[in-house]
Amino acid sequence: MDELRMFLNDRDRHRPLIRKLDALIDLEPPEVDCLAGLAQTEQSWSRGDALIETGQSYDEILIIEAGWAIAYKLLADGRRQVLRILLPGDMVGLHFAVADVAQASVEALTPLSTSRFPAQNLMGIYHNLPRIGAAIAWTAAREEAILSEHLISVGRRTAIERLAHLFLELLRRLQLIDLAGQRTMALPVTQAVLADAMGLSIVHVSRTMRQLRQAGLVRMTDQQLEIQDLAGLQDVAGFEEEFLMQDGLPDKLVSRLRY
Amino acid sequence: MDELRMFLNDRDRHRPLIRKLDALIDLEPPEVDCLAGLAQTEQSWSRGDALIETGQSYDEILIIEAGWAIAYKLLADGRRQVLRILLPGDMVGLHFAVADVAQASVEALTPLSTSRFPAQNLMGIYHNLPRIGAAIAWTAAREEAILSEHLISVGRRTAIERLAHLFLELLRRLQLIDLAGQRTMALPVTQAVLADAMGLSIVHVSRTMRQLRQAGLVRMTDQQLEIQDLAGLQDVAGFEEEFLMQDGLPDKLVSRLRY
DNA sequence: CGCTAGGTTGAATACGCTCAAAGATCGTGG
DNA sequence: CCACGATCTTTGAGCGTATTCAACCTAGCG
Question: What confidence score (pLDDT) does residue A44 get?
């Protein structure tokens, strides 16, 4: 019986959100159980499906278990801005708990599987398992840092810098959940998605990708991105790892959030 | 004695953060006391002062009591992106609790006064006064909505749309704390700040302001912005009020965040 | 085979940038 | 009190990055 529990526990450790938080604060078995029990109802989606629609009301938080998605918003005339690229282990709807209505839409970029749990349960978690509360707070802070860096890209970086920076960000985020190699990763996005994420036109994304290619920095084949010159790419991007907060987490993280 | 308490209570209701949250969920006297007691040590700053410096470590959360500030980040070559415009009642450092080090700098745009409290106290508040916890969660969600809308501006709106949208956002935010009239408000920012916020050059901000002026939409005199044609400006901006979440808050806000 | 979605390339254009110089405003010190 | 410097705004001219429009190419799929 105990062995079964250990087995289940180990199995759960491979789910991306748990893996992410485990990498951060070395989850205890009961904590893994809690997270695993929290979000059980799995759901599958196809590419192009709308997980969340602007204006609709939602009471549950979604966790991406596998696959990629985007959160975006449309302007009246059809212009689209991609706000977040959602990877396995990411959560959607942390804020719907307070906003009555979704402010953005979420769409699957690939076949996708999700689990979900009621937003209300969050408060109980903060109360009973403060370390997990802390980890989720870390998640939220990190997401804001990513969003800020996104704003910097779109506001103040050139096209080539934007793409280089995005690729490095995605590489690091994927590495945290063991979904990327040292210098290679899946990149299941069209250039239209890249364009709408980085505030560029499709055509210019195409041209800029060629620049990156011809500079010997990256290579794309079949939805796979290979970074041929990591240092060179970091240089072009002006990439600073720190904002992702994924290395050498301070111990105070946990202690600070205990009341 | 009771009268003194009532007096103090009423006085505190004029502090911007309390006013903001009061407008939202009708704070009870003990809740006002809690918020007032939380943040007492006041501090004054001059225009140009650095409240927060990138890379430094902070354990306290700042509340802007009066004056304007900006949060920004610099690139290696000096390019600057303004991430947030901070108004009275805004909090700085909700995330420093988990990040070991500040990711952005904060600078006073005007003479400024702040109060502060230890980040740790937050957890106690969530526990003891869940309605305040809910209100602070609302604050965080709203800030992310503002940041998202900022990203949309910079990524997908034209220069004139960006400025129009920004002015309307600031107007609504100021109205919530009784610092703006129906169509007029203080705007103590230089065009350099507007440029770095909206991802434009100073020169182009100047030209775009002229457009807005010549279209009869706004008028600026002496750090005061008057919106001459509110409907017209909203039209240019494609402005949708909802993302600010400041009208008709759902009751579920509070109930949802209770555990 | 033909359709659709996605990617690439060229040509012309535009929006916004840089550079430069000239006003305007304000605080400060002579 | 005026002059000076500093900061901010405005305007012009030329340029450049990125856009739009359009055509063509490729791959996958029914």
Answer: 95
Q: How far is B1 from chain A (nearest CA, A)?
A: 32
- Give me the A residues in range 177-206 that sit within 7 A (CB) of strand C: 190-192, 202-203, 206
Q: Closest to B83 (Cβ–Cβ): which among A80, A151, A198?
A: A151
Contacts 24+ apart (CB under 8 A), A229-234: A230/A182, A230/A183, A233/A164, A233/A167, A233/A168, A234/A164, A234/A168
With bands split at pLDDT 50, 70 and 90, how would you rate the model's confidence at A67? very high
Establish if B50 touches chain A: CB-CB under 8 angstroms: no
A/B interface, count of CB pairs below 8 Å:
156
pLDDT, one tens digit per residue, over B26-79 is 888 888 888 888 777 899 999 999 999 999 999 899 999 999 999 999 999 999
Whether this prediction's pTM lies above 0.85 is answered by yes
Q: What percent of chain B has pLDDT over 90?
A: 65
Query: Residues 72..111 of B with a Cβ closer than 8 Å to A: which?
Result: 73, 75-76, 79-81, 83, 95, 97-101, 103-104
Domains of chain B are: 2-256 (2.60.120.10)
